[in-house]
Specification:
- By secondary structure, this protein is an alpha/beta fold.
- It has three domains: 4-71, Multidrug-efflux Transporter Regulator, Chain: A, Domain 2, CATH 1.10.1660; 91-169, Methyltransferase, Methionine Synthase (B12-binding Domains), Chain A, domain 1 (Orthogonal Bundle); 179-295, Rossmann fold.
- Helix content is 53%, strand content 8%.
- It contains twelve helices and seven strands.
- Strands 4-3-5-6-7 form a five-stranded parallel sheet, sandwiched between helices.
- A hairpin with a 5-residue loop joins strand 1 (31-32) and strand 2.
- Helix 8 (149-169) packs parallel to helix 9 (191-202) and helix 9 packs across helix 12 (283-295).
- The longest helix has 21 residues, at 123-143.
Length: 299
Amino acid sequence: MYTIKEAALRAGVSVPLLRAWERRYGIVQPARTASGYRLYDEPLIERVRAMRRLVNAGWSPSQAARRIETEGVPADLEAPAAAGPIDARDGGDSASDFVDAAAALDERRVETILDDLFATGSFERVVDDRLMPALRALGDAWAAGTLSVGGEHAASYAVLRRLSASFEAAGGATRDRPVLVGLPPGSRHEIGALAFATTLRRRGFGVVYLGADVPLESWAEAARTTKARAIVIGIPTATDHAPATDVAHAAAQVGDGLLVAVGGPAAIDATLPPSVVRLPDGMAASADALEAALVRPAT
């Protein structure tokens, strides 16, 4: 028998996600010790592994849970049935709930909402369809004066902590030339960049996440030191256009086949060198575009 931490590790999911799937979908019903601690055996862990495989293959969590309940652990990963109406357990007004919890500075509720968000689908789908709309609602509430700076910061840092854990869980360093991901000088809105770095790691890329507000000279230095195959510069706001362009020009001098790409909400309007790859909206689509650019023959 295994504790919840051991079971999550063996199943390849996080502890919060295991708790959320258990609570929301009833996918497992662990035994309890006399003091109330959960205990999981191998068959239960295999059900969690099956849930993870189905969700990563495109099934909604509610579809995956029903599939396992009715037919057992699948031997293969057939395509999911056509999506119907969203199951209430897969949705909810998460954006307004998140803003309400942030306004109340209710850390426990914020964490529970994040647990539930990340239980509703694959990492990339949750980020695009649930997390980013919730964060936009958070920003709108702050701009409207209905949310304090403290509430906005506390909720944003909770998201960053969650994404940092996902980044670490997605894999470690590889021997391959890495992709560098970060923000240009002065830019501090790093949630999208960290989410994309995590997406790349989940695809098997070696990734070095440089973080927010990376000085101009540090980009070229990092590219040379790591022999990076690509750099991805996040451009979350229009004020990041000029510093991102400076980074792109500096990176072009590195040579060694270094690919330079940009992404983020404001990337489409930036004036950049023609060799720079502009990534589309969406975590999965951006990862696809970067992968295609890396294998494209040089012209």
